[in-house]
Write a structure and sequence with these properties.
Elements (H helix, E strand, L loop, with lengths): L5 H15 L8 H15 L4 H8 L3 H8 L7 H10 L4 H19 L10 E4 L3 E3 L8 E3 L2 E4 L1
Antiparallel strand pairs: 1-4, 2-3
Helix pairs in contact: 1-2, 1-6, 2-6, 3-5
Length: 144
């Protein structure tokens, strides 16, 4: 998932927003898998009907999977992955990334900036060569 073009990130973001739903709504694995399949199918320029024929599943069933309404069996997942020329491990990596994105989007972040302070340590001697001991440096640390 490294180095995604901006358009792909935007589409993925919309996909994640679709499954994140309303507050209090749990994201289901079948929803994330469906969104990943839909995104990959569209990226490849394949219609729903074409993918259904390649995977040997019905168009309505594939549509239900893409919308996150049906929980596909491992055999169906394998068939769709084959049709998309996608390894199961790659599908799972995409799903993991989307799930992590949903989690980051829905977790509240509370940063209390008043509790952050910078402390300066005492100057330290640094040996720049075997014979030099006079160089000094300062180190800073962020304490939260």
């Amino acid at each position: 998932m490294a180095d995604l073009p901006t358009a792909d990130l935007v589409e993925m973001a919309h996909s994640v927003q679709d499954i994140a739903g309303e507050e209090g709504h749990d994201v289901l694995l079948r929803q994330v898998i469906g969104n990943v399949f839909r995104r990959l199918r569209r990226e490849r320029g394949i219609t729903l009907r074409e993918l259904a024929e390649l995977a040997q599943v019905s168009v309505p069933y594939l549509s239900e999977i893409e919308r996150g309404r049906k929980e596909p069996s491992s055999e169906i997942l394998a068939a769709i992955c084959r049709a998309l020329e996608l390894e199961l491990s790659d599908l799972l990596a995409e799903v993991q990334f989307d799930l992590a994105t949903v989690a980051r989007r829905t977790l509240p972040i509370h940063l209390q900036t008043a509790a952050i302070r910078v402390q300066q340590s005492a100057p330290q001697s640094i040996a720049t060569s075997p014979h030099a001991h006079s160089a000094s440096a300062q180190a800073f640390c962020l304490v939260a």
